[in-house]
Amino acid sequence: MKKCIDLPDLGKGGPYSHAVVAGGLVFVSGQTGQGGNSFREQFQDAISRVEKILRASGSSLDRTVKVTVYLSDPSSFQEMNALFSERFKSAPPARTTVVTGFAAKGVMVELDVIAEA
Predict the structure, then answer these.
(1) Which of 68, 70, 76, 74 is nearest to 93 (CA)?
(2) Tens of pLDDT, residues 68-98
């Protein structure tokens, strides 16, 4: 049985759930930074949104097993690595990084996460 998680205060851009809990895992939909003009600000906001969704789902960043990071600019890769290691200090999750364009103008980073419930 799956359980859909929605946090009205986070808002969203379409007909999807912020997360779905199923099979002992939490699947968090892609989260972008909602403000800030720097990569750092957007990354910090996106990871904070993910963390809030995981808490609402009964999980946490510490229980994250997989992260997909989407970057708009490959030159942000090293900064992303540094920021990522600040948030995942020990036993970091598996990760895939993809460079892509975004439909919303100004978006520099998006994160989607799978964690243990």
Answers:
(1) 68
(2) 999 999 999 999 999 999 999 999 999 999 9
